[in-house]
Amino acid sequence: MKIDIILGLQWGDEGKGKVVDSITPNYDVIARFQGGPNAGHTVEFEKQKFVLHTVPSGIYRKDTLNIIGNGVIIDPVILMKEIEKLSSAGISTEENLLISKRAHLILPTHRLMDAALEASKGASKIGSTLKGIGPTYTDKIARHGIRIGNIDDPEFQAHYNHLKEEHLSIIRHLGFDFSNFKLDGICLSDYEKKWFESLKSLRKYRFIDSEQFLNTCLDDGKKILAEGAQGTMLDVDFGSYPFVTSSNTISAGVCSGLGISPHRIGNIFGLFKAYCTRVGAGPFPTELKDEMGDTLRNQGNEFGSTTGRPRRCGWLDLPALKYSIMLNGVDSLIMTKTDVLNNLDEIKICTEYKMNGKPLKGYPFDVLSTELEPVYDTLKGWNRSLDDVTSFQKMPEELKQYIAYIEKYLKVPVEMVSVGPDRTQIIKK
Ligand code: GDP
Ligand code: IMO
Ligand code: MG
User: Fold this and answer.
1) Is 112 in the pocket of ligand 2 (CB under 6 A)?
2) CA-closest residue to ligand 1 atom 17
3) What is d(CA 310, CA 235) in angstroms, rounded to the nearest whole number?
4) CA gap 248, 13 in Å, rounded
5) Are the CB atoms for 302 and 373 separated by under 8 Å?
6) pTM, two decimal places
7) Looking at residue 180, what is its pLDDT?
8) CA 234–ligand 2 middle distance (angstroms)
9) Which ligand is nearest to the CA of 39?
10) What is the pLDDT of residues 165-179, one digit of tens each?
């Protein structure tokens, strides 16, 4: 067997949680391969709404195993809070949630350092979710980090203390006053206490060699879906650096983040919203800073699942999608939030960028340039509700044309269309 991948092609929040949950019945295992609690994946069913940060979105189906892979980084406080929320909604996780021993831990001082580094950047800050993502991956790459499989080592506490002191000295060096700084509403020492308690509670979960486990699952004919976090345009190598996250969000991240050979990669599903959003700072060529942007934000309820920040909104960006598809090797496209465009007479779609008036080939390195100008085509909107649409055939003609335009440009078929937040609101080809 081969492992399928589902990932975001834009700047995150494409609806990964919703779509993964919808298609989980087709799989035995769902595995997260990168990122950490900067992710916020929303799943809605039976009038309930959940937001997951670290737990894979297959957790609501009790016959599916969920793996937190080695490429993921874990804040025990956030993970335990998530598990408790699931448990109070009657969803048990002890049997079907497994954690890679190789997943690195986000220490309380990693979070503090994130805040200190962002503050030190002043106006050029990234708009990080401040969950400690950058500093934790930095320690991992610098070979300083602590993995969850190390928590019973005799030197664990000494390692923790050493890292903490190192972080505090950098934070002091940055001139960041953390005496009154709160982490999720509490001071550092209280957060640390909670952190150790949460780590203890996590011991009831199985810490596994997930790379071996997953490869054995494939040998045994089990179906696995890898769930991405963030989006391709936030990839540390190919996103709009430095306004990116600190992991590889692209399909190659599955190989390193789960220990899967490229030979074992199967179908790659690329998710995109029918328009674009971005939360945090950084270039966004098709951003709408006018009333239309507000309309998309209100219709789409575009407020961050992790931080509650308003998301920046804009028209669909085909050059960016083409670039994402190239990086990931996407086989099928899934378009989400289609219903958000229901009330429009006209829909714009970016087909090309110009730099200093000249059309560009490919996606530019210099995407930060103010000289970059998007060129648009205008399509007719369907201007009606999609509530009664249950198949591709029954879609309004204008929506069919919107999809056909995208497919023709990108040369990849759109195989699913999401028309609402509920797990049932998805149309499959
Ligand atoms: P993720 O990070 O990719 O999982 O996406 P988020 O959960 O952060 O953001 C997507 C938001 O859109 C969530 O509030 C979802 O409930 C919602 N959503 C997902 N698909 C659709 C859709 O097709 N239509 C509408 N209106 N909302 C959707
Ligand atoms: P999901 O998985 C949208 C953005 C942040 C910031 C930048 C760096 O829900 O799609 P970080 O916390 O990683 O240091 O932030 O990346 N960002 C996301 N934006 N969705 C996400 O995840 C994101 N995770 C990080 O807003 O601009
Ligand atoms: Mg999200």
Assistant:
1) no
2) 421
3) 21
4) 16
5) no
6) 0.97
7) 85
8) 7
9) 2
10) 999 999 999 999 888
CATH architecture of residue range(s) 273-428? Alpha-Beta Complex (3.90)
The pLDDT tens digits of the residues spanning 191-225 come to: 999 999 999 999 999 999 999 999 999 999 999 99
Position 340, amino acid: V
Pick the CATH number of 3-102+207-269 from 3.40.440.10, 3.40.50.150, 3.40.50.880, 3.40.50.300: 3.40.440.10
Q: Which of 255, 277, 243 is nearest to 15 (CA)?
A: 277
Give the integer Cα–Cα distance in Å for 388 and 384. Answer: 10
- Token reading at 51: 């937001």
**Residue 383 in tokens:** 């201007």
**186 in helix, strand or coil?**
strand
Domain ranges, ordered by start, for the chain: 3-102+207-269, 104-201, 273-428
CATH superfamily of 104-201: Adenylosuccinate Synthetase, subunit A, domain 2 (1.10.300.10)
14 CA distance to ligand 3 middle (Å): 7
Question: What tokens appear for 124 in the block?
Answer: 């050029």
